[in-house]
């Protein structure tokens, strides 16, 4: 029969690999969020620079208005993308938490199995010692009975 503790050790190892995978996934999503947020911040800086460059010149203001419209559209797309990424991050966090819970379940099951094995070994040892003691007691009674 296969050792249940070794089986649990294998499950724990696999589950820890799942934790590592979930962490990598979470990090990748967070890196994407950081990059997109940096793009959004850059767009805002560029927009402010264009507005300052346009100043009060009517010819430049017309160009600025068109540029501001394109930036607003791009920022809306970025907002939608960030919304998707935030949901992906939430899922990745849930996956990571579930992976940790799974490892903890297996570790607790392993500990319980080890404790049960230790208890069973102690009971067997006690039974063996009791048997040895009873045999010694019987032998002494027989020896006392024969000698007396």
TrEMBL record:
Residues 12-39 form a coiled coil. InterPro entries: Flag_assembly_chemotaxis_eff, Flagell_FliJ. It is found in: Cell membrane. It is a peripheral membrane protein. Pfam families: FliJ. Keywords: Bacterial flagellum biogenesis, Bacterial flagellum protein export, Cell membrane, Cell projection, Chemotaxis, Cilium, Coiled coil, Flagellum, Membrane, Protein transport, Transport. Its main location: membrane. Belongs to the FliJ family. This is Flagellar FliJ protein. The lineage of its organism: Bacteria, Pseudomonadati, Pseudomonadota, Alphaproteobacteria, Geminicoccales.
């Amino acid at each position: 029969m296969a050792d249940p503790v070794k089986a649990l050790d294998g499950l724990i190892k696999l589950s820890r690999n799942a934790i590592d995978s979930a962490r990598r996934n979470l990090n990748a999503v967070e890196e994407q969020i950081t990059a997109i947020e940096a793009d959004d911040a850059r767009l805002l800086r560029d927009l402010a620079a264009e507005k300052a460059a346009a100043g009060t010149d009517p010819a430049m203001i017309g160009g600025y208005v068109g540029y501001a419209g394109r930036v607003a559209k791009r920022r809306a797309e970025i907002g939608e993308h960030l919304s998707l990424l935030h949901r992906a991050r939430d899922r990745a966090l849930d996956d990571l938490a579930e992976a940790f819970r799974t490892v903890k379940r297996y570790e607790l099951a392993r500990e319980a199995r080890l404790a049960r094995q230790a208890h069973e070994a102690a009971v067997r040892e006690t039974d063996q010692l009791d048997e040895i003691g009873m045999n010694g007691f019987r032998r002494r009674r027989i020896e006392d009975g024969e000698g007396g």
